[in-house]
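hey m, so remember when u said the tokens were messed up on ur end? i reran from scratch. heres the input so u can diff it against urs
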Amino acid sequence: MQKVDFNDKEFKLVSNSRVFDIGSNTVFSFCQAGDLVFGKYRGGKVREGSFVAKFIGGASLEQRFQHLNNEGELIAGSSHSTTEVMPDGRLRIKQQWQLSTEVKGSAILEEVRGDQRESTDIGGNKFSWIKFLRSRKDAPVFSNILTK
């Protein structure tokens, strides 16, 4: 199995089993430091969201997420995901998710490449997790990804 690296990658939803705040206009920005995977997401009905996950074994993630939607509701949940490398080299994430309200579903996210990348826009500026972490000299846990 090919090693999976989430560092400085963006993903978009390609399918979801239930109508929910997360849609095709939601952009997920990922970062990874060892078994720690984290990031932000926004777009569509999501005003601002974040997630943290533990990378398990070769291709699985255990994740917790939360976001504020455009209606002012706080949404939280968890998911178990498996990751695969597609023939073109991009990553695909298959999720089984559950909201704190017990609503369950499944989703598929695919990596966005090159000129299709949007980066999470914060305050009119393109946001990069790598640039943010490089600015944090007090975060030694991330030193292995800052040298890339």
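this time it looks ok to me. Residues 120-125, 140-148 have pLDDT under 50 and may be disordered. if urs says something different then somethings off w ur setup not the seq
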